[in-house]
């Protein structure tokens, strides 16, 4: 399925000095005994796995949420989360994949299917009976925060609808919307377009598909590889032509940048070109700002003179980009914003992890650190977070609305309605 | 002075001695085996772990090759659970592309009957992706790798089940040589119990010298000259399994031309240097460097991977009238020295030479000859008698992880690197005589992983201390230490299986259900060697020995962390009880780094090293 080369993440196990820092930071190991920690399942267990082994020796690595906090804190550079992901892929290759994980991995397909009749789809999914059934039959936790399909059409439909209003410019940027923006939250894409156009860029949205991450985290490497190849075919050309490819979904961009090439051992020029061209949108905006090119024509976000208290949580997968917290830096340019930076390790959801019935309680326990942080910020009535599933989990855990930082930025430009979540044109 | 009587006395607790004891006991002889340290402390526990198909010697030493393939087939049945069926490749690297050796190799394999199949290079690279892609031919042979610690323990368990008595930490001080009737006859030996210091006399009709590299010293006690040619082999262990098949270079055996996957590591082997002393071995920088350079030819990049440790063992090579200079040229075939006919010394045999792979055959030949001298005819039964545990079949790399995962024993780990649980450690300490932590390392692989005892040493010492505390309340048995050891439980068939050693119930229930049998010295509060400070110091020193020769890069980082733990936090170089010593303290203190011998290097030697 995959080969070992000297560049493989597996071989970073040699860097491990057993210090246990990863284990002491792991948010999952802290709340459950079902996961023995990153050191155990990563570099340690890896010495007992072999390429083409007759059977996978693993079970508990399935409880790794893939949040990558371990990679973040490892002082010697072991790619622990990726070692775990590969071990899970071996388990899946051997034992097969449960229907539930297959469903959760098929984000794009589900998005597409529901979008044909979003009202009906929402009604069918978001009612107590369906949720109980979904838990009993498929194992999707009934309380877990599933998204709603957009009832105003997909993001690409909006782009098409508003094409006459879209900015034409010599300066062009490619936008990677990801499945959540496309099918559930097209307004995130609208906010991104508003921000990019405000800065004089024409936004290109070429055909694209799921980045493959949901499948990578559920161990379906073959399917993920097909999606990744699709994206390379459709997008690598833009990268080679010098266009930046920016995304608002931190996990999608991380996948294009790093996860897919690393986990799937992709060293082909196309994957590398896509990897090189991909940016998190705030990472790219920060670059723009450093060159003095970012429009700072901001207006305060709260109508009265009061400062808006805004707890901000950088998702684990954002931290995995190893780019600091550019969203925080850019948001801090907005006048009247009282940003409160969360240092919680993880919200718990970790992509599709917290949706799984047996893992939902673990995810909620992991998220407690973040929920408590938000609760401690008096006056906070809204939160900010870059990743979609994390926002949904935050809303679920805090009962406060959560928005993408790009929505705040677009609103500060006066081109987005934060309340109604739509572009103002 | 206690006196024991037996028919056959075996000297040496390596693979050969254990095999002789097993073979003789199965034939119905009364047997006592004495070993001056722990089982496999000598060469058996210091070899690379290769179960030879015979391919390595097929051109140069066909007699040894034939012995190897014959025994390879038998051991796969009798010692199945001690073997991982890795298979082996003989690969033709660019250096040998023009040589006619590969064709000679293939013809010789056919001649001797070693199954040898040439496979496409592409298939070999698919199975071993890190293998040098520039190899031109690949032959597949039934090489395998063996856990020589477990195999010897299992052999000894089989011998005990057939009635043999095994006395470890009993060193031969003198042979009982009778010169009456104008005939010289060995009638047993006087041995010292290295733990209690007591002398024991063992009277035997036949004494079989299976002391390996030390066989010359034993024979000298009987007045016989046996010139063992001690060939030191240095091996380098890499941190993890870079290959999962034994990789041999298809050429005349030389230095650094094999890579053996054994448990969680691969070993690159080996050198062959004639040395004077089989005991205190230095590891020279050129040897480590040569292993890595030669390893590069098989697995390009290997020299940049993490090196775990280096170690050396001494082959007990023997060739009557050998006059060459290079011990590489000495036969690997077994040598049975019949002292009655050779030297006119009755009641005494020496069995040496050979390979680990041929230990059973060596034992068979030795006991066959003993039968002749004793005037009895009893057929050998070892080839058809599996040792306890063999029914488990071959082990596989993932078995420990798999068992830990199945039984959810993650919280029980003492040695995290090698996945040793607390129950494995306790059962090993209780169920076979144990004097040092290093004995437990050989039993369960304690401290053999990347951190080299960094995190498990203090844990293991604490656990043994607790066992000793429990034994303080145990009834003191009236037996002599020898009887106590001989009668103590011995169950090693599942020594290495975490899933077979599960503690159930609450800690209190576990405590109450414990059978307080005869204690092994390490858990016996009456013996000085159970002192925790001594255990800790000895084991740290023992691990340190093997790390010193490879102290760079990632292993240096590791040692720095270990140093902070033991010297910085625990002040391990200033512990009380400094005067205490185990039978092995001096051995551990021998400095393996090149230069003047400096016994007395303590853990603070790390500081000396750093400042030197």
What does this structure look like?
The complex is a heterodimer of chains A (425) and B (612). Chain A folds into 4 domains: 9-95, Fumarate Reductase Iron-sulfur Protein, Chain B, domain 2 (Orthogonal Bundle), CATH 1.10.1060; 99-138, no CATH class; 155-290, Glutathione S-transferase Yfyf (Class Pi), Chain A, domain 2 (Up-down Bundle); 308-423, Rossmann fold. Chain A is an alpha/beta fold and 425 residues long. Chain A has 22 helices and 10 strands. In chain A, strands 2-1-3-4 form a 4-stranded parallel sheet, sandwiched between helices. The mean pLDDT of chain A is 94. In chain A, helix 21 links the parallel strand 7 (383-385) and strand 8 (402-403). Chain B is α+β, with helices and mostly antiparallel strands and 612 residues long. Chain B has 3 domains: 3-43 and 149-228 and 331-384, 3-Layer(bba) Sandwich (FAD/NAD(P)-binding domain), CATH 3.50.50; 79-144 and 230-312, D-Amino Acid Oxidase, Chain A, domain 2 (2-Layer Sandwich), CATH 3.30.9.10; 399-611, no CATH class. Chain B is 33% helix and 20% strand. Chain B is built from 19 helices and 23 strands. In chain B, the strands form 4 sheets. In chain B, strands 1, 2, 9, 10, 11, 12, 19, 20 and 21 form a 9-stranded mixed sheet that branches. In chain B, strands 5, 6, 7, 13, 14, 15, 16, 17 and 18 form a 9-stranded mixed sheet that branches. In chain B, strands 3-8-4 form a 3-stranded antiparallel sheet. In chain B, a hairpin with a 2-residue loop joins strand 15 (258-262) and strand 16 (265-269). In chain B, helix 1 (15-26) packs parallel to helix 5 (148-161). Chain B starts with a strand and ends with a helix. In chain B, 58% of the residues are buried. Mean pLDDT of chain B is 90; it is low at 597-612. The chains are: A alpha/beta (425), B alpha+beta (612). At the A-B interface, helix 3 of A face helix 10 and helix 17 of B.
């Amino acid at each position: 399925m995959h080969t070992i080369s000297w560049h493989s993440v597996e071989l970073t196990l040699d860097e491990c000095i057993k210090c246990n820092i990863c284990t002491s930071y792991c948010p999952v190991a802290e709340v459950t005994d079902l996961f023995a920690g990153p050191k155990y399942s990563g570099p340690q267990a890896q010495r007992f796995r072999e390429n083409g082994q007759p059977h996978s020796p693993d079970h508990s690595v399935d409880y790794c949420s893939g949040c990558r906090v371990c990679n973040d804190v490892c002082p010697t550079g072991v790619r622990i989360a990726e070692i775990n992901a590969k071990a899970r892929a071996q388990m899946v290759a051997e034992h097969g994949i449960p229907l539930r994980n297959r469903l959760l991995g098929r984000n794009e397909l589900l998005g597409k299917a529901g979008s044909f009749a979003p009202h009906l789809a929402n009604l069918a999914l978001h009612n107590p009976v369906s949720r109980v059934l979904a838990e009993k039959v498929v194992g999707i936790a009934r309380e877990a925060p599933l998204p709603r399909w957009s009832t105003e059409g997909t993001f690409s439909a909006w782009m098409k609808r508003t094409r006459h209003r879209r900015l034409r410019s010599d300066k062009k940027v490619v936008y990677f919307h990801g499945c959540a923006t496309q099918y559930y939250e097209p307004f995130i894409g609208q906010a991104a377009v508003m921000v990019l156009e405000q800065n004089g860029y024409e936004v290109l949205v070429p055909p694209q598909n799921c980045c493959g991450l949901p499948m990578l985290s559920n161990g379906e490497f073959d399917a993920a590889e097909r999606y990744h190849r699709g994206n390379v075919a459709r997008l690598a050309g833009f990268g080679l032509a010098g266009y930046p490819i920016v995304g608002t979904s931190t996990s999608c961009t991380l996948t294009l940048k790093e996860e897919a090439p690393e986990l799937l051992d992709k060293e082909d020029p196309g994957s590398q070109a896509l990897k090189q061209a991909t940016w998190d949108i705030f990472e790219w905006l920060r670059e723009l700002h450093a060159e003095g090119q970012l429009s700072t024509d901001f207006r305060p976000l709260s109508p009265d003179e009061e400062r808006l208290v805004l707890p901000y949580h950088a998702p684990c997968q954002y931290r995995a980009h190893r780019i600091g917290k550019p969203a925080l830096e850019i948001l801090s340019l907005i006048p009247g914003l009282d940003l409160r930076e969360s240092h919680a390790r993880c919200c718990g959801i970790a992509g599709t992890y917290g949706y799984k019935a047996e893992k939902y309680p673990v995810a909620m326990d992991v998220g407690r650190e973040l929920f408590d942080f938000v609760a401690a910020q008096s006056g906070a009535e809204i939160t900010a977070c870059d990743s979609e599933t994390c926002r949904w989990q935050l809303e679920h855990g805090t009962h406060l609305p959560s928005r993408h930082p790009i929505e705040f930025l677009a609103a500060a430009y006066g081109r987005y309605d934060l309340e109604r979540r739509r572009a103002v044109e | 002075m206690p006196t024991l009587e037996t028919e056959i006395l075996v000297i040496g607790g390596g693979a050969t001695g254990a095999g002789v004891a097993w073979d003789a006991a199965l034939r119905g002889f009364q047997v006592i085996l004495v070993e001056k340290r722990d089982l496999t402390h000598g060469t058996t526990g210091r070899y690379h772990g290769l179960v030879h198909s015979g391919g390595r010697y097929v051109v140069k030493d066909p007699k040894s090759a034939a012995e190897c393939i014959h025994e390879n087939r038998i051991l796969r049945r009798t010692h199945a659970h001690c073997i991982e069926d890795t298979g082996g490749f003989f690969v033709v690297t660019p250096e040998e592309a023009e040589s006619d050796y590969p064709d000679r190799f293939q013809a010789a394999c056919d001649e001797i009957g070693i199954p040898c199949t040439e496979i496409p290079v592409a298939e070999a690279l698919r199975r071993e992706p890190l293998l040098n892609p520039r190899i031109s031919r690949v032959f597949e042979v039934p090489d395998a790798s063996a856990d020589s610690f477990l195999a010897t323990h299992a052999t000894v368990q089989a011998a005990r089940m057939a009635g043999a008595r095994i006395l470890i930490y009993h060193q031969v001080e003198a042979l009982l040589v009778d010169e009456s009737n104008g005939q010289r006859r060995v009638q047993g030996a006087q041995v010292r119990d290295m733990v209690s210091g007591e002398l024991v006399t063992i009277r035997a009709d036949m004494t079989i010298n299976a002391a390996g590299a030390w066989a010359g010293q034993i024979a000298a006690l009987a007045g016989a000259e046996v010139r063992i040619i001690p060939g030191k082999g240095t091996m380098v262990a890499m941190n993890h399994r870079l290959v999962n098949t034994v990789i041999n270079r298809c050429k005349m055996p030389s230095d650094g031309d094999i890579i053996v996957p054994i448990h969680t590591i691969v070993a690159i082997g080996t050198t062959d240097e004639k040395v004077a002393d089989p005991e205190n071995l230095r590891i020279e920088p050129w040897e480590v460097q040569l292993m890595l350079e030669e390893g590069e030819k098989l697995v390009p990049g290997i020299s940049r991977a993490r090196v775990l440790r280096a170690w050396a063992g001494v082959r007990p090579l023997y060739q009557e009238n050998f006059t060459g200079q290079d011990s590489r040229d000495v036969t690997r075939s077994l040598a049975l020295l019949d002292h009655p006919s050779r030297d006119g010394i009755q009641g005494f045999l020496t069995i040496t030479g050979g390979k680990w792979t041929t230990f059973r055959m060596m034992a068979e030949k030795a006991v066959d000859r003993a039968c002749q001298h004793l005037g009895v005819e009893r057929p050998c039964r070892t080839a058809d008698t599996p040792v306890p545990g063999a029914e488990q079949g071959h082990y596989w790399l993932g078995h420990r992880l798999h068992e830990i995962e199945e039984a959810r024993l993650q919280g029980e780990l003492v040695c995290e690197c090698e996945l040793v649980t607390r129950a494995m450690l306790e059962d090993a300490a209780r169920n076979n005589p144990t004097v040092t932590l290093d004995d437990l390392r050989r039993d369960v692989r304690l401290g053999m992983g990347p951190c080299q005892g960094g995190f498990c040493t203090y844990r293991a010492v604490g656990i043994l201390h607790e066992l000793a505390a429990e034994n303080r309340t145990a009834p003191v048995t009236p037996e002599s230490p020898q009887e106590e050891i001989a009668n103590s439980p011995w169950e090693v068939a599942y020594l290495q299986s975490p899933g077979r050693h599960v503690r159930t119930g609450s800690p209190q229930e576990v405590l109450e259900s414990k059978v307080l049998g005869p204690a092994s010295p390490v858990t016996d509060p009456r013996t000085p060697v159970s002192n925790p400070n001594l255990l800790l110091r000895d084991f740290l020193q023992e691990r340190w020995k093997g790390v010193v020769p490879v102290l760079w890069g990632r292993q240096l980082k590791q040692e720095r962390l270990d140093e902070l733990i033991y010297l910085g936090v625990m002040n391990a170089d200033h512990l009380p009880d400094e005067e205490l010593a185990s039978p092995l303290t001096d051995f551990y203190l021998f400095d393996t780094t090149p230069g003047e011998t400096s016994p007395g290097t303590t853990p603070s030697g790390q500081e000396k090293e750093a400042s030197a």
